Amino acid sequence: MEGQAATVGVVKVLRALPGVRVILRTEDLEAAHATSRIWNEKWLSSFFHKPCNYELFVRQNLNLETAIADALAEGDLGWIVHIDTDELLHPGGTADYGLRSLLASVPSSVDALVFPNYESAVERDDVVDPFTEVTMFKRNFDHVTKEVYFARYKEMTRGNPNYFLTYGNGKAAARLVPGLRPNGAHRFHNYKRAPREGKANEAAVLHFTYARFEDVRARRGRCNCGSSEEEVAKCFILEFDRWVFRKASEEKDDGKLRAWYREHVVWTDAAFARGQLAHGLFGRIHAPSLLVASLDASAAEEDVRDLAAAELEKEPAME
């Protein structure tokens, strides 16, 4: 946890969750990062000393290296995976809808399991909580019929730079073994030997990218980057992120910006969506929404019980 996200209240809530360890950005952590061997990685050197998303990408690798070291020192942890706060792991294909059973089924000869990513296909421009409100996803190339994918590629991009708005190479979970190192936020490598990868046939990473209009509007002024092509290229790695930043920075009228959002991100044509669902390019996944909603309901019930208990304590004792 770092920056604006690392408020006392948020950290307290996370630390109260079973099995959750929160690592804060302390001076000791900064010192460890400053002397990390990550800075010797030639494959990452083109990202060094650049602002915004480039800086974030380097920091992700530094944090991953720290997490790997801590996990190996712990001694009884089996796997590690890097998941962002706008992502969920969907353990499709398991009888118990469980990540543990999915990873337990991976052959011992496989060092890393790649989860193809699915991208949220929002159907409204007023989504507030993507995890509970979004159930339609654009499926990954690895999980669709290749002929249909290529035949409908153009209509699925709608003039956007690529098939997916942001990344499309999935994310890997790796076995925690000596020599393991991050190879970006999406893959792992090993200093001792190249890892052997497998690919999940049904499980996926669900990426809720730009699932809220606020996600687009929030790009205004991000990282204090200028809006010229040269300046934006120095701040953002992915082309659609550059598009969004420039559009949000240049278009101050929220109504016009929302119209652009509907055109490039929101799937408003229900008949078209039904067709892509039939072809398998879109998929409906309701489990995350139902699970998160049930967690919210349980939390609300607990709050009511706590409130009732507090009120009872206030009442005077009966004589």
Numbering strands along the chain, what is their spatial order in the largest sheet? Answer: 2-10-4-5-11
**Quaternary structure state of the chains depicted:** single chain
Distance between the termini: 51 Å
Number of domains: 1
Q: Helical residue percent? A: 40-55%
What string, H for helix and E for strand, traces the elements in order?
A: HHHEEHEEHEHHEEEEEHHHHHEH
Count of DSSP-assigned helices = 13
Query: Sheet with the most strands?
Result: 5 strands, mixed
Low-confidence stretches: none
Query: What is the CA-atom radius of gyration, in angstroms?
Result: 22 Å
- The tally of strands reads 11
Q: Report the principal-axis shape.
A: globular
Strand content: 5-15%
Structural class: alpha+beta
Mean pLDDT: 92
What does the model show?
The protein is an alpha+beta fold and 319 residues long. The protein has one domain (36-299). It has 13 helices and 11 strands. The strands form 3 sheets. The chain has a 5-stranded mixed beta sheet. The protein has a 4-stranded mixed beta sheet with strand order 1-6-3-9, covered by helices on one side. Strands 7-8 form a two-stranded antiparallel ribbon. Helix 9 crosses helix 10. The chain is globular and about 50 Å long.
Task: Give the SSE layout.
Layout: H1 8-15, H2 27-34, H3 53-74, E1 79-81, E2 87-90, H4 99-104, E3 112-115, E4 117-120, H5 130-133, E5 136-138, H6 146-151, H7 153-157, E6 171-175, E7 180-182, E8 188-190, E9 197-199, E10 204-207, H8 213-217, H9 229-235, H10 239-250, H11 254-264, H12 270-279, E11 282-284, H13 287-314
Parallel strand pairs: 3-9, 4-10
Antiparallel strand pairs: 1-6, 2-10, 3-6, 4-5, 5-11, 7-8
Helix pairs in contact: 9-10
